[in-house]
Design goal:
Helix content: over 70%
Number of strands: 0
Largest sheet: none
Distance between the termini: 56 Å
Radius of gyration: 24 Å
Oligomer: single chain
């Protein structure tokens, strides 16, 4: 596979992602980022690099706030998708068909 076909398939994959899958991927990335930053903060405190440690702490805080917002957006999107999906109904419902004027 050459690089042109790779980017073509990559673009198709990105464009066909649902919003729910995009948000789930973003949540996974944020969790990984927070975990890595916590490890960096621990090593900076161990090496007594307080200035960088404070900087990394505030980056962790921003990542955490972003995680909370993305999580709320993911939950709302998931609920919205449930409401948009058609509910299962009976194949034949004579009472409802009669009320709607659909006489077979």
């Amino acid at each position: 596979m050459n690089i042109i076909t790779f980017f073509k398939k990559w673009k198709e994959g990105i464009l066909t992602l649902s919003p729910e899958k995009q948000l789930k991927a973003k949540l996974t990335g944020l969790i990984g980022g927070i975990f890595g930053l916590i490890l960096a903060l621990i090593s900076m405190i161990y090496k007594r690099m307080w200035g960088f440690g404070i900087f990394v702490f505030f980056i962790i805080w921003l990542q955490f706030v972003s995680f909370i917002g993305t999580r709320q957006q993911y939950i709302q999107t998931k609920e919205m998708m449930k409401e948009l999906q058609p509910k299962e109904q009976d194949i034949e419902s004579p009472k409802i068909d009669g009320e709607l004027g659909n006489i077979k």
